Every structure is written in C-alpha cells, then in structure tokens.
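Budget justification note: compute hours in this period were largely spent on complex prediction jobs such as the one shown. Inputs:
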Amino acid sequence: MTLTSERAIIEVEQLSKVYGALPALQGLDFSLARGEFVALLGANGSGKSTLLRLLSGLSKPSAGTVRIGGWELPREAMAIRAQIGLVAHRPLLYENLTARENLAFFGRMYGLQAADCEARAKTLLRQVGLPRRADALVRTFSRGMKQRLSIARALLHGPAVLLLDEPYSGLDKSAADSLDDLLAAAQQDGRTILLSTHQLERLPPAAGRALILSRGRVAYDGALEASELAAIYQSASA
Amino acid sequence: MKTSYLETVLAIAGKDLRVELRSRELISVMAIFALLSILVFSFALELDRAAREETVGGVLWVTLIFASLLGLNRSLAQEYDLGNLDALLLAPAPRSAIFVGKFAGNALFTGLVGLLLLPLMTALYGMNLLDGRLILTALVGVFGFCAVGTLLATMTAQTRAREALLPIAMLPLALPFLLTAVRATKGILTGAAEWQVWFQLLAGITVIYFVLCLLLYGYVVEE
Amino acid sequence: MTIELESKPMPLLLRALTIMTVLGFATTLYLGLFAAGTDIQQGDVQRIFYIHMPSFFGAFTAFGLTVLGGVLALARESDKWDKIALAGVEVGLAFALINLLTGSIWARPIWNTWWTWDPRLTSAAVMCLTYAAYLMLRAGIEDANRRRAFMSVYGIFAFVTVLITLFIIRIVPDTIHPVIVGASPQNAQGSFEATSGVVLALLPSMALWLTVMPITLIWHRYRLEERREGLDRLKLKLLSE
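Corresponding output:
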C-alpha cells in the first residue's frame, strides 16, 4: 500500500455516484501511477463521463473516496482543481473571443501571472499547431481546431493530470493523429493521462493500460495490447 | 494554489465585457426591448399628464425588470450551452467569486439600459427623471434584482424550459424590489419625503438578497 | 415473482398528532363559532378571524419548515429533508390560500369588496405565487440532485416574501388591513378588538394552526412522497427486468 500510494497520483476507492434512483458508478476501485497513460473504455452510458466529471471536481461522489496528488475530494477540491486539466465533449471555449483571449482568460481563472500566461499560451499555441490563428475568433474554428485549442486550454496551468472525454469523436484521421502526437508529448512531460473512448478501433497508441467500465463497474483493468481485450469489451458492453 | 477572489471577479466580468463589446448581443436586445416597452406603455395607457406622474415609476421598473430577464437568460444560456459554466467551475476559483463576476456583467448591462431609459423617458414623458436620488434608486434596484436574477438564471439555464421558467421563478422574487422601487420613484417625483423609507427598504432587501446569493451560489452550480 | 410496495407502519407519534389535529380542529371550530361572543359591529362575519389569522401562521410554520428542510438538504445532501421542504410548500400553500379566501369573504361585507390592491393583500398574493412558482420550477428539473439543490435555494429565497407579508403592515402605513397584535394603522378599516372572549377562542386556534396541524399534515405528505418514490423505484426495477 505504501509503495503504491507513493507512486499513485489518482487513488479511487469504493467510488459510487447515484443520480436520484439511478446508479451511475458502483464501487469503483483503481489507481493511476504518476506518468501513466490509461485508456478508459466503455459503451455509452457505462459511466465514463460521470467518472471524469468526478475526478475533475465538477461533481461530488455519493460514496467512496477520490484522492488526487494526496488531496481528497470533495473536501480539498480547490487544490485538486489546480492539478487537473479536462478536455470535455464540448470545447469549453468562448466563441466570441480569439484563441489568445481565451487562453488569457483561463490563465487568469487559474491565477497565472499575465506575463507567464502569455508566454505559455504562445508555446502551447505553437505546440497545438495554431500559432497563425491566435488572433482569430474561436467561432471561425473547425471542430479539430477547437479540440486542439481545448487541449491548450487544459494544459495551460501545467496540470499533473490530463483528463479527456471522447476526444476522438468528430475528428478526421489527420486531426486524430495530431491529437495522438500532442498526448504523447504531454506524457513525456510527466503528465498522467486518462482518456475515455467508446471506439475500440481508435485507441491512443501511447496508452499502456486499459480500464473497461460496464454499467458503472470496472469490468477489466490491465494491459491495453492484450489480445482478449476486444472480446472483454464486447461482453462488457453487451 | 487558489485564484484570488478579486482576480476571479475581474477576469469573468472583463471577459463578459469584452465579448459584449464585440458582439453587442445583450445590450442591443435589451435596449431595443426597453425602448419598445416604454412606447407600448405610453400608447396602451394613453397617459395624460396626471396619469403619467402616477405610473411613470411602474413603467420604468417593469421595463427594466423585463429587459434584465432577456439579458440574464442569454448571458447564462451562453455559458451553459457551450459548457463554459463547467470551464469556470473547473478553475480553482471561489464559487461565490464566479457569481460576483457573472453578476457584475449583468448588472452593468442592465444598469446601462436604466441610465439610457431615464433621459429618454424624461424627453418622452415630459417629466424630469434625471434626479440624483432617482439614479441612485435605479442603480440600487438594478443591483438587487440582477443578483437574484443571476442566481436564478444559473439554475434555469440548466433546465429544459428555461425561457419560460426564468420569468416564473424570477418575477415573484423580484416583486419586493418592484414594490419598493416604484414607491421610492413616485415619492421622488412627487416630492414626498417618504421616498427615503422606501429607498431604505429597497437597499435593505438588496443587501439581504445579495448575501443569500453569495452563500447559496455554490450549491446551484455543483452537482 | 411477487412485487410489493414497501410500506412503513404509521408511527405512534403521527397517529397521536393526527387525532390531536382532528379533535383540536373540532374544538376550535366550536369555540369560534359558538362559544365566542358575537362582535357588536361586524356580527357573525367576524368569526372568520378564528380561521383567517391562524391559517396565515400555519403557512408561516410550513414555509419555515421548507427553509429548515432546504438548509439541511443542502448541508447534508439529504433527500429526506428535501421531501420535507416540498411537503412544507404544499401544506403552506394550502394554508395561504385558505388565508386569502377567508380574508376575501370577510372583506366583502366589511370593505365592500372581495379584493383590493392593498400592500398586505398584494404581498400575500405574491407569496402564494412564489410558492406556486416553486412547484412549477420543481416539475421542470429532472435530475434529482440538481432538483434538491435548486429547490432548497428557491425555498430559502421564497421565505423573504413571507417575512414581507408578515411585517409589511408595520412598514407600509397606508394599508387598510387591521393589525391584530399591537396598534392598528390609523386608516385600518374593520378593526378587531382582542377582548377576553375573543382571546379565549383565538389562542387555542392559533396554537393548533401554528404547531400541531402543519406538522401533522407535512408528515403525512412526506410519507406520501416516500411511497411515491418507492413506486418509481419499483417501476424502474420492473422495466430493467
């Protein structure tokens, strides 16, 4: 236990979330080591989004504990929020602001110094391949561009953990490939990544481990390249 | 790491102001509505001089409250539809500071509409509404009902029939403001000393509502 | 497989409260309608006060419980207190409507009108509308956790209209509504002298409407809500099988 909790950045114990009478998550147990890249698999409605919302502090657990970087949810949510970057279904950007203005705004919301924030925004915009669109309004962006800016937004405050909810949906082949490159780079910076998807045929190549959810429970937790993964996934989502 | 209160408020209010300066979406809708409203009232009520003195306060305040409803609905719907309310909540910023930031933008736009209405009604109704006391009353009233309105619009933005639900939820709670502000306005226009009692009452209700909003906002944005 | 709706037996205390409410209501009706003397100026119509004023205070207690329920529902994330808050709104609204209706019946002979836009009457009507809005808003929110949070907040805010209705007589001098406790405003029409005979009939009625009656009704309504939810769970279970 001591060994794992030193290495683990995310520890989830007996986590449950209930919406009214509907259980969304039922007694989840797992932990993520620092620097790990984990793919969160499961059919629609298996509880992937609920789990990511809980981990990012947007929603409170009904029972169980979540510890991230040694802090506990929901009591120490403020400290946890500073360590989390979330890329959600929706881009979480302001359409009537430019890319640069969006990043400047979110930088302020995370308490970054204006000068630091500007420098980081510049680097990130280059990394996500949007340096020339920095001063264009976000509403003129394509889905893929919004997605990339959204990743820049999530990485802006240098979070230890990056959570992504179905980032491949709506992306074409080249956009998805550049997403993979970005994620690999983020992992190399030492970030822990949890990425959810329901498409088994499009898995992040950098991920080393899979976590399959089925009806709010962990159905599989192990190596991603296991040959029986497809079969397990099929039976879990049936 | 935690973002400071003031920084959060300024960031959100500044962002809303910048978006609004660019699109003029809220203020133009609110201003045009307010204009139409005072014109419609003056036709519908066929106001003669004496009747105008009686009703001008009511026309002003009903117009302001309805205009603010339009603005509030849009302001919070914009945040909610793109998921940006989540983006604000993801930040390590105090929840009540998020409220104050959203409130500041809404109050500013509604206040501007109010300041636009006063000279306009002065010209159209032939009565001097450009009185320091009246401007103060207008600003306090706007402050108060925009606070409740921001809280309620945050709630109704997360429901299905929000355009219908915001007025239903808001109007009963805005009535204490309407009641006191209309009386204060009437008192000021007719030179009655009792306007002070009404103004104090309005200010008191504003303080109570604002404190309640600060305390309770966290609960309506967190699941 | 047999499916049964879970049902808890009625607690002894609730049985006792129910009996107290029924007997108390009968007794206070008797006191108000027969035992108390007839008002010299107003005649028999004055007897409506033995219901009119207590019903407002019953609404006060019920809406107060909504505030308490809201605060505890928020603090403890408790669905139980949320149900109590809802029960408080429904019972309180029923009491407030009784209050408006009886007032209106009294006003017809005394003020010569069913309704007038007097500050207190207006604020009482606003109060009713606020709680009607509570029920509409509640019906519009599907997610249970959100509903609990929103309605707790709304229930707390709504109480401001109750306080305004209660105190407006003292703030707004131009009401024609008489004040029962303390001095009436100068222009109050149809005053109400608290003579000893009146007090004898009014006090028990006040005590009943202020405490036992709203609590009993809210408790019953709470149990009904619990059973309704049990039924929903049962439906869900049946559907998933």
